[in-house]
Design a protein that fits this description.
It is a single chain. The chain is α/β, with parallel strands linked by helices. It folds into 2 domains: 250 residues, 3-Layer(aba) Sandwich (Rossmann fold), CATH 3.40.50; 73 residues, 2-Layer Sandwich (formyl-coa transferase, domain 3). Helix content is 38%, strand content 15%. It has 16 helices and 12 strands. It has a 7-stranded mixed beta sheet, sandwiched between helices. Helix 5 crosses helix 6 and helix 6 packs across helix 7.
């Protein structure tokens, strides 16, 4: 069986970061997604090998000149056959091109118009430039990543671009498409990375309200490396392990396997005044064995333990190999689609495409008459990578 979103058609207006990630997620789950590239991105014939960007997997590519009136008309024709469109320009850009929500919903009243920005479609910052690091700063997240006495540490661009951005865009578009099936009406989905990042912090707002998260003391709290039982530690061979022994029964197992059982100071697990000293002591202990030795002792126990792996190491770990968490496509190792479905399995059926690689076939498959396709390619409104 195809993925759970099979039968749905989505148009992706080419962008970077969270937009392509959302499009990849929708495609992984079975939607037919076409990526609309700038006509100027076509550079002659498409290379024989797949495009290098893994996030472009699973979808065909068409190149349209949206500054050409026939290019705009072509995109609106495709909109008429689509369930959703997603774009990641600054507010107002799609409107200036003549393919904003008003024009698209007039052509297809059931269309879901998904918008992806950093700051949102309105507000004082709406038209300002920004990147993940800025969005998670304003959302109140970045301030809390890092160790005590040190500057905040950006967590790659996973929190803003992908967690707070692309994931929420995909969720919002799926939710709106589901609603449109019943109501017959489309709508605009305003996805902002600052909004998504803020909601990812929900639990910490709860902890702050309960008085168990001090927002003024980075790196001193339960889950931000303040506690000795929730941190990463260096081993004798320079590799690292992770410990997350929060619950009493898991902490008791940590004490047993480290030989600290019965130590009166370690017995006061939740006495935060002891944490700095206990971190020093347990760090010294973990340096007495190699990572492999600690794995042999603690893996698959109730310590809440795992080795800290690089991407390459993760792809080769027996657990991930057994679950096929990573796959190889076009000679490139990459994460497999997630989550798993018991009946409608998600499958990647298209290698990352080059700009304009499928222009002609997309137009034909989406209902454009063959003679009109030829006219569009001749005029330059649409370009095909021969």
């Amino acid at each position: 069986m195809p993925g759970p979103l099979a039968g749905l058609r989505v148009i992706e207006i080419a962008g970077i970061g969270p937009g392509p990630f959302a499009a990849m997620l929708l495609s992984d789950l079975g939607a037919e997604v076409i990526r609309v590239e700038r006509a100027g991105a076509v550079r002659g014939a498409a290379p024989d090998k797949p495009a290098g960007d893994v996030s472009l997997r699973g979808r065909r590519n068409i190149a349209i000149d949206l500054k050409h009136p026939d290019g705009v008309a072509t995109l609106l024709d495709l909109v008429g056959a689509a369930d959703a469109l997603i774009e990641g320009f600054r507010p107002g850009v799609m409107e200036r091109l003549g393919v904003g929500p008003d024009e698209c919903l007039e052509r297809n009243p059931k269309l879901v118009f998904g918008r992806m920005t950093g700051w949102g479609q309105d507000g004082p910052y709406a038209h300002a430039a920004g990147h993940d690091i800025n969005y998670i700063s304003l959302a109140g997240a970045l301030a809390h990543f890092g160790r005590a006495g040190e500057a905040p540490v950006p967590p790659l661009n996973m929190v803003g671009d992908f967690g707070g951005g692309g994931m929420f865009l995909a969720l919002g578009v799926v939710a709106a498409m589901l609603e449109a099936k019943g109501s017959g009406q489309g709508q605009v989905v305003d996805t902002a990375m600052v909004d998504g990042t803020a909601i990812l912090m929900t639990m910490f707002w709860s902890m702050k309200a309960a008085g168990i998260f001090d927002e003024q003391q980075r790196g001193t709290n339960l889950l931000d490396t303040g506690a000795h039982f929730y941190d990463v530690y260096e081993c004798a061979d320079g590799r690292y392990i992770s410990i997350g022994s929060i619950e009493p029964q898991f902490y008791a197992e940590l004490m047993r396997l480290t030989g600290l059982e019965g130590d009166e100071q370690f017995a006061r697990q939740m006495d935060a005044t002891q944490w700095p000293e206990l971190k020093v002591r347990i760090a010294e202990l973990f340096k007495t064995k190699t990572c492999d030795e600690w794995c042999e002792l603690m893996e698959m126990t109730d310590v809440c333990f795992a080795p800290v792996l690089t991407m390459s190491e993760a792809a080769e770990h027996p657990h991930n190999v057994d679950r096929q968490t990573f796959i190889e496509l076009g000679g490139v190792t990459q994460p497999a689609p997630a989550p798993r479905f018991s009946r409608t399995a998600a499958v990647v059926d298209q290698l990352p495409a080059h700009p304009g690689q499928h222009s002609r076939e997309i137009l034909v498959d989406w209902g454009v008459a063959a003679d009109h396709v030829d006219a569009l390619l001749t005029s330059g409104a649409v370009r095909h990578a021969e």
